[in-house]
């Protein structure tokens, strides 16, 4: 069984219940910038990408017109207005993260958010030093490029074989594949478990606390294998 040392979490749709706010902010930005309103599922399909890439995917005509930055600024203003009180954690997240830290796991975040956006939330929570490292899309390559995972692995001194990526979007799981890393698919965020199954996650969950239970079982099975091998 894998001996995981490092757990890397996506933020939106994995740790916090923010998908609805992202979709609403995108709709507001589209209206203010004179762009057509797209359906909710289409917008959900880009969550996880860095925002410039997400906007270019939804509205390629903005790239040609050179208006991606304007739309991005409008989206950011809309999202901050909606998210004045940061989105709530999904049930079980805070308790599970605290328990995982107590068990000795290193914890990291790999997100499509900007550094400014993530830092605003971490500061509000008093979580500035909660994670061993956080990486944001505007500091590195956007998902599904594996660069941010490579940077996290290097910082933590952990090989890919001992790290686990947990996310709710195809970009998360594809990024993990490209980094040679196992992944857990989350089914309560932006995309369904059926859509994520194509990326062959090690585990698929519909509640965050299922992750801790599975990790505990994995540790127990690894210890059993070690005892049997010695015997």
TrEMBL record:
InterPro entries per record: HAD-like_hydrolase_sf, HAD-like_sf, HAD-SF_hydro_IA, HAD-SF_hydro_IIIA, HAD_2, HAD_sf, PGP-like_dom2
Matching SUPFAM superfamilies: HAD-like
Cofactor: Mg(2+)
Keyword Metal-binding: yes
Gene Ontology molecular functions: metal ion binding; phosphoglycolate phosphatase activity
GO cellular component, one term: cytosol
Keywords, alphabetical: Hydrolase, Metal-binding
Transmembrane regions: none
Single biological process term from Gene Ontology: DNA repair
Coiled-coil segments on the chain, per record: none
NCBIfam families named in the record: HAD-SF-IA-v1, HAD-SF-IA-v3, HAD-SF-IIIA
Protein name: HAD-IA family hydrolase
Organism: Phytopseudomonas seleniipraecipitans
């Amino acid at each position: 069984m894998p001996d995981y040392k490092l757990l890397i979490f996506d933020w939106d749709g994995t740790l916090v219940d923010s998908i609805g706010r992202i979709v609403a902010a995108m709709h507001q930005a589209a209206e203010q910038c004179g762009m057509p309103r797209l359906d909710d599922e289409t917008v959900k399909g880009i969550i996880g990408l860095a925002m410039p890439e997400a906007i270019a995917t939804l509205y390629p005509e903005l790239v040609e017109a050179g208006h991606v930055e304007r739309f991005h600024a409008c989206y950011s203003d809309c999202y901050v207005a909606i998210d004045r009180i940061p989105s709530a954690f999904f049930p079980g997240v805070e308790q599970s993260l605290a328990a995982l830290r107590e068990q000795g796991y290193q914890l990291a975040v790999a997100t499509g958010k900007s550094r400014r956006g993530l830092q605003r939330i971490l500061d509000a929570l008093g979580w500035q030093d909660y994670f061993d490292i956080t990486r944001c899309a505007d500091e590195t390559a956007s998902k599904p490029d594996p660069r941010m995972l490579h940077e996290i692995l290097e910082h933590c001194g952990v090989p890919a074989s001992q790290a686990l990526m947990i996310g709710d979007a195809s970009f998360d799981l594809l990024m993990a594949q490209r980094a040679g890393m196992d992944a857990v698919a989350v089914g309560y965020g932006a995309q369904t478990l059926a859509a994520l199954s194509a990326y062959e996650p090690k585990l698929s969950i519909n509640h965050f606390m299922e992750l801790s239970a599975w990790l505990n079982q994995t540790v127990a099975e690894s210890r059993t294998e070690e005892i049997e091998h010695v015997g």
